[in-house]
C-alpha cells in the first residue's frame, strides 16, 4: 500500500497568495459570500508606495456593493481634489498639449450612482484589509508561499514564516494567485505571458515641495498631468495640497527624434531606472515642474518595468491567476489595479457558489473565458494609451484604436457559458465592449443603473445586487416574479425577485424597462456580480420550467437528462 500523504497543518476553502490590492479584494469579496479565506503575504503589511491612484467607475461600484463607498470617498477627498482631470503639459508651468479627461466625473450620474476617484493604493489597501477582516478573512504577513502541489481533490501549499523560518502545509480547495506581475505561482504552473513585452525601465520619484505647486497649473486640471518635453516623458500626480506627489518617468531625452526607434527597450532613453540617483531625480523633477531651482526634496525613488502582457490562461486546475499575475499593463489609463480588483469580484461569487454546491464546478471555467478576454482587451488599451500619451515613437502598427473610457469601464461584456447570450442580435464575435448607453441590459453586459425608491429611500438598481441572483421585472412582470421564486426555491438557488415600478420598488422616472431593453411584462436576471445573465422581452414564455432551465444552464449544474424547456438565446416574445 502506498504511504498516505501526511496530514496538512491547516485546512482552508480558499488560499490567496499575495495580500496587496487584489489579494485583499479577493479575501473581502469572498467574505461577502460567507467564505473565510486565508491570504498569505510575504511583506510585513500593506503597500508602502501609492502606485495605483485612479479608481474607475466600475471599481467604485463594486466597492459600494462591499459597503465601502463612504470610507473610500472620505479618504480620497483627504488626498486629492475630487474631480481632477487628466491632461498633457510641457511642464507644470508650461503649455498644455492635450486634455484627455477634463473632469473625471463629468456625466457620471447618467450611468452610475457613484463616482470615479483618486485615492492612493497605500491608502486604499488598509480599508480593504479592515473590511476583509470584518468579514472573517485571515491575513498572515511575512509568510511566503514556496510550493503548490495539486491533485483532483485540492491543493497543498507549503508556506514559510519568514521571521520564525519554519514551514507548514496548508490544504485548500482552491488557490487564488494574486502574487503580482512576477508571479512565482504563474512560473511554477508554466503559464506563459504574451503581448508587447517590456516597454521601459521606469521610475517613480516621490517628492515634497516647500511651495504649493498647483498655482503653476494656472487653473488647468490637477489630477494626472502627463509631461512631454525634450528632457523626459512621464506623468505627475499632485495631491490636493500641491506640496506633495510623485513623478513617473518612463522615457528620458528627446524621444521625438526618429533615429531612436530601432533600439527600444534597452536603449538609455527607455531605461531611466539604471542610472537614477537622487541628483538625477532632482534634475528630472525640476525639468518636469518647469521652474529652475524650485525648492523640492526627493523623498524616495521606486524603479519598475512598464510591460504590456497577458497570461495565456488564468486557470490551472484548482489554481486561478488574478490581478497583475494575470495581466501586466502600463499605468496609462489607470487600468491595472482596477482590472485586478474586478477579476477578484468576478471570481469570488463563482468560487463561493461552487464551494456551497449551488453551482457546478465548470462555472469556474467561465472566470478564464470572461476575465481573460477583458484582460487582453485592457492590456491592449493600456498599451494604446502608453503609445499615444508617452511613446509615439513606438508607432501605431499593432496598436488597437483607443476605445472610449465609458465602454472600457462599464461597457465591457462577458461572452461565456454563464450568460445566455442573445446571439441573433449580438453574435459572440461582436466587439467585447459597447457604450453603456447602447447595451441596455443585453445579457453579458453590466446591469444598468436606474434610480429607484424602496421603503421611501432612494437607491440604484445596482444596490439590489451582491450575493444572490436578482430577477428584475417590469410593472406587469408578476408572472416572471412568481416563476423565478418557485424555480429558485426548488433548485435551492439564492434569488431575490423585484417588480420594478410596483409597490416595493418604485420607478419614479418610469425608465426601468427601457433601460433594461424589455417591455413592462419582461424580466432580466442579474448575476451576483451585477452582470445581466438572461432576459425576456415579455411574459409570453414565463414559467417555472423556463427559469429552472435558465438557472441550471447559468450555474453549469450537472444534469442527468436534457430538460424539456430549452434556453432561449433571443429575447422571448
Ligand atoms: C506608478 C504606477 C501607477 C499606477 N497607477 C495605477 C492606477 O492609477 N490605477 C490602477 O488601477 N493601477 C495602477 N497601477 C497598477 C497597480 O499598482 C497594480 O495593477 C496593482 O498593484 C496590482 O495589484 P496585485 O495585488 O495584483 O499585485 P501586487 O500589488 O504586485 O501585489 C502582489 C503581492 O504578492 C506578494 N507575493 C508575491 N509572491 C508571494 C509569495 N510567494 N508568497 C506570499 N506573497 C507573495 C507580494 O509581496 C505583493 O505584495 C500603477 C502602477 C504603478 C507602478
Question: Could you explain how this protein is built, in words?
Answer:
By secondary structure, this protein is an alpha+beta fold. Helix content is 26%, strand content 25%. The protein is built from 13 helices and 25 strands. Strands 1, 2, 7, 8, 9, 10, 16 and 17 form an 8-stranded mixed β-sheet that branches. An 8-stranded mixed β-sheet has the order 5-4-12-13-14-11-15-18. The longest helix is centred in the middle third of the chain and has 25 residues, at 365-389. Residues 562-573 have low confidence and may be disordered.
Summarize the structure.
This protein is an alpha+beta fold and 573 residues long. It has helices spanning 21-32, 57-65, 69-79, 121-134, 184-189, 278-289, 336-355, 365-389, 405-410, 436-439, 478-491, 512-515, 544-554; strands at residues 10-17, 38-40, 54-55, 86-89, 96-101, 117-118, 138-140, 143-150, 155-161, 167-177, 193-209, 224-228, 232-238, 244-252, 296-311, 315-316, 319-321, 327-328, 451-454, 457-460, 469-473, 495-499, 505-506, 523-526, 532-536.
Amino acid at each position: 500500500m502506498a504511504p498516505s500523504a501526511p496530514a496538512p497543518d491547516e485546512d482552508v476553502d480558499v488560499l490567496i497568495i499575495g495580500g496587496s490590492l487584489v489579494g485583499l479584494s479577493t479575501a473581502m469579496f469572498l467574505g461577502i459570500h460567507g467564505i473565510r479565506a486565508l491570504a498569505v503575504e510575504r511583506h510585513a503589511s500593506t503597500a508602502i508606495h501609492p502606485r495605483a491612484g485612479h479608481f474607475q467607475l466600475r471599481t467604485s461600484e463594486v466597492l459600494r456593493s462591499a459597503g465601502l463607498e463612504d470610507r473610500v470617498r472620505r479618504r480620497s477627498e483627504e488626498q486629492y481634489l475630487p474631480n481632477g482631470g487628466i491632461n498633457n503639459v510641457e511642464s507644470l508651468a508650461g503649455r498644455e498639449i492635450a486634455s484627455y479627461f477634463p473632469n473625471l466625473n463629468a456625466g457620471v450620474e447618467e450611468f452610475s450612482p457613484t463616482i470615479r476617484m483618486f485615492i492612493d493604493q497605500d491608502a486604499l489597501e488598509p480599508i480593504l484589509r479592515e473590511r476583509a477582516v470584518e468579514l472573517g478573512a485571515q491575513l498572515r504577513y511575512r509568510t511566503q508561499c514556496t510550493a503548490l502541489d495539486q491533485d483532483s481533490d485540492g491543493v497543498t501549499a507549503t508556506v514559510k514564516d519568514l521571521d520564525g523560518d519554519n514551514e507548514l502545509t496548508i490544504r485548500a480547495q482552491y488557490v487564488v494567485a494574486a502574487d503580482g506581475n512576477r508571479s512565482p505561482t504563474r512560473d511554477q504552473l508554466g503559464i506563459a505571458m504574451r503581448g508587447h513585452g517590456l516597454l521601459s525601465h521606469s521610475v517613480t520619484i516621490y517628492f515634497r515641495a516647500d511651495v504649493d505647486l498647483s498655482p503653476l497649473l494656472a487653473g488647468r486640471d490637477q489630477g494626472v498631468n502627463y509631461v512631454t518635453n525634450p528632457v523626459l516623458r512621464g506623468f505627475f500626480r499632485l495631491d490636493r495640497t500641491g506640496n506633495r506627489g510623485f513623478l513617473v518617468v518612463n522615457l528620458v531625452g528627446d524621444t521625438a527624434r526618429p533615429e531612436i526607434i530601432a533600439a527600444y527597450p534597452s536603449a538609455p532613453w527607455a531605461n531611466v531606472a539604471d542610472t537614477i540617483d537622487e541628483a538625477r531625480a532632482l534634475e528630472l523633477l525640476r525639468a518636469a515642474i518647469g521652474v529652475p531651482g524650485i525648492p523640492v526634496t526627493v523623498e524616495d525613488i521606486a524603479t519598475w518595468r512598464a510591460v504590456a502582457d497577458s497570461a495565456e490562461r488564468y486557470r490551472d486546475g484548482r489554481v486561478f491567476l488574478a490581478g497583475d499575475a494575470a495581466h501586466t499593463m502600463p499605468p496609462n489609463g489607470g487600468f491595472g489595479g482596477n482590472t485586478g480588483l474586478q477579476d477578484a469580484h468576478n471570481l469570488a461569487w463563482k468560487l463561493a457558489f461552487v464551494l456551497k454546491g449551488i453551482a457546478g464546478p465548470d462555472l469556474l471555467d467561465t472566470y478564464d473565458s470572461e476575465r481573460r478576454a477583458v484582460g487582453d482587451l485592457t492590456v491592449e488599451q493600456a498599451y494604446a494609451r502608453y503609445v499615444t500619451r508617452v511613446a509615439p515613437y513606438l508607432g501605431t502598427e499593432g496598436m488597437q484604436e483607443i476605445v472610449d473610457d465609458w465602454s472600457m469601464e462599464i461597457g465591457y461584456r462577458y461572452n461565456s457559458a454563464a450568460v445566455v447570450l442573445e446571439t441573433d442580435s449580438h453574435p459572440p464575435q461582436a466587439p467585447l465592449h459597447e457604450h453603456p448607453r447602447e447595451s441596455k441590459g443585453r445579457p453579458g453586459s453590466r446591469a444598468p443603473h436606474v434610480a429607484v425608491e424602496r421603503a421611501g429611500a432612494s437607491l440604484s438598481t445596482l444596490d439590489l445586487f451582491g450575493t444572490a441572483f436578482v430577477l428584475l421585472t417590469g410593472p406587469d412582470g408578476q408572472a416572471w416574479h412568481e416563476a423565478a421564486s418557485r424555480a429558485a426555491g426548488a433548485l435551492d438557488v439564492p434569488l431575490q425577485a423585484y417588480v420594478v415600478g410596483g409597490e416595493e420598488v418604485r420607478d419614479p422616472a418610469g425608465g426601468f424597462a427601457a433601460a433594461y431593453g424589455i417591455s413592462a411584462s419582461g424580466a432580466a436576471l442579474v448575476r451576483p456580480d451585477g452582470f445581466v445573465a438572461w432576459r425576456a422581452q415579455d411574459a409570453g414564455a414565463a414559467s417555472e420550467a423556463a427559469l429552472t432551465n435558465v438557472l441550471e444552464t447559468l450555474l453549469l449544474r450537472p444534469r442527468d437528462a436534457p430538460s424539456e424547456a430549452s434556453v432561449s438565446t433571443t429575447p422571448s416574445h
